[in-house]
Design goal:
This protein is of the alpha+beta class. The protein folds into 2 domains: 97 residues, no CATH class; 62 residues, no CATH class. Helices cover 27% and strands 28% of the residues. The chain contains 4 helices and 5 strands. The chain starts with a strand and ends with a helix. The model has no long low-confidence stretch (mean pLDDT 80). It comes from Desulfonema limicola. InterPro entries: cNMP-bd_dom, cNMP-bd_dom_sf, RmlC-like_jellyroll. This is Cyclic nucleotide-binding domain-containing protein.
Length: 170
Amino acid sequence: MNSLEAVFEIIDNNKCPFYKHGDVFCLSGKALLLDQKKAKTFISTTIIKFPYEKSSCRILIEDLSEILIKYKSVDRIPELKLYCSGCSGLVRLEYKGRQPNSPGIEDKYDIEVIESLLSNFSFFKVLDENDIRKLVPFLKMKKYNKGENIIKKETPAGIYISLFQEQLRF
């Protein structure tokens, strides 16, 4: 199951402090509403690729995320132009089409294993097997070699784990 990403390019720039004309942003992910017996649950994954070595503008992140939420999936986004909500500057973006994204979880065995693993976490116990199956396409599989570091101390996850370990010592 290869996913797609929507490509947006800045076509007008009016004093934007972060980006310039021609900068490209790639949007991927999904927005899913799960209708459960007791409540409805909305799940959204939004992945936005920014020009390398440029700041991330939270206003533009929100604007692009709203597009994904509105259309539910990248393959439903129509041709459009949009203005960012603005701060001290303003940019206008144009939808340039779709392109293949990095591959997601493709192996049927991996999907079954992930479904089984997720159902063991308390966070996912409120979901039935069918809902968990719907979540799997949101995930990206990355395999690590034995002994390979997967979390570094200086990353947010590493800092969180260090703080958690300190709390356990008391």
